[in-house]
Amino acid sequence: MLLIVHSYLRWLVLIAGAIAVGKLWGAAVRGAPYGPAEKRVSQIFIGLLDLQFLLGLILYATSPLVKTAMQNTATSMQDPHTRFIVAEHPLMMFIALCVAHGASIWSRKAPTDRQKLLRGEWGFALAIGLMLAGIPWFRLYGA
Predict the structure, then answer these.
(1) Could you give the angle at the alpha carbon of 72 between the alpha carbons of 70 and 75, nearest 5°?
(2) Which residues contact 62 (CB under 8 A, 6 or more apart)?
(3) SS (H, E, C) 14-35
(4) How far apart are the C-alpha atoms of 98 and 93, rounded to whole Å?
């Protein structure tokens, strides 16, 4: 059940991230200030990403696949799907989480509204790119 929630929440995280990037980009193009609406979409994206990461950590700690893989790491790392789930996916998502949080902090500390908008926009876009690269797409197709 937790895996299903984690899987569906991924789409909400990606949509929230895309909305945040779009909102920040739109405000930057219009020359609008970094206001409560921009702050709110950023917080929603970060909050959903944090929840997703927490669910992922719980899954990782309780996963039979991970437990089995850890019993013989050398053999497990030779299988690309197992290696992706056990090592690459969690690492990419952790990096994406750090980038998103870093962008949020870097954005808030910017001296001008335009810099706040652009820093958030680019940082969140990079985090989304990392998440897209770290999603186990092969599981969608049963491979």
Answers:
(1) 120
(2) 2
(3) HHHHHHHHHHHHHHHHHCCCCC
(4) 9
Q: List, run by run, the mean pLDDT of 10-residue segments along the chain (143 residues).
A: 91 97 97 95 98 96 90 88 91 98 96 96 98 87 54
Cβ atoms 96, 46 nearer than 8 A: no
Helix (H) or strand (E) segment spanning residue 9: helix 2-30
The predicted pLDDT at position 72 comes to: 87
Query: Residue 7 and residue 136: Cα distance in Å, rounded?
Result: 10
- Tell me the C-alpha distance between 133 and 80, whole Å: 15
Q: Positive or negative, the Cα torsion across 43, 45, 46, 51?
A: positive
Taking each helix axis from N to C end, the angle separating 113-134 and 89-108, rounded to the nearest 10 degrees, works out to 180
CA angle 69, 132, 32 (to 5 degrees): 145
What pLDDT does residue 1 have?
A: 87
